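Quick one, tokens below. Sequence please?
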């Protein structure tokens, strides 16, 4: 993972081609968020989850380092994942764990550098990485 000299790294990950059954399984998703945080040596402070009907899920872990969230759209095979960490959290390790669990066929990641001084240009605050699994 790239080391930032700012407040933190914020990864926005789009997972496409995931199994609908996994994206609609609230227990699996929350367990996976917790394990992703533990693997990345993040400290879980709280959590919130909501299962939508007829399908879909939103889950959030509040971390000492910031947060991890997931929003799923089983009917589209799509999950929107957000991992923001400051301090020593290993953002990419959390994303990589979720890739193993959800097995997307295509991933788009956008990495934002948070805490960049106001005079920084927009080009210096983010980079986009496209990965096809």
């Amino acid at each position: 993972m790239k080391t930032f000299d700012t407040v933190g790294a914020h990864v926005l990950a789009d997972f496409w081609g995931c199994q609908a059954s996994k994206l609609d399984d609230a227990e699996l998703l929350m367990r996976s968020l917790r394990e992703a945080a533990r693997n990345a040596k993040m400290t879980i402070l709280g959590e919130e989850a909501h299962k939508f009907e007829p399908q879909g899920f939103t889950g959030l872990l509040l971390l000492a380092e910031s947060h991890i969230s997931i929003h799923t759209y089983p009917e589209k095979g799509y999950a929107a994942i957000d991992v923001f960490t400051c301090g020593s959290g290993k953002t990419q390790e959390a994303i990589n764990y979720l890739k193993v669990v959800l097995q997307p066929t295509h991933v788009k990641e956008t990495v934002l550098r948070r805490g960049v001084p106001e005079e920084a240009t927009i080009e210096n605050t983010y980079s986009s990485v496209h990965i096809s699994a």
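The longest helix spans residues 26-39. Strands lie at 8-16, 44-51, 57-63, 66-73, 78-86, 106-114, 126-132.
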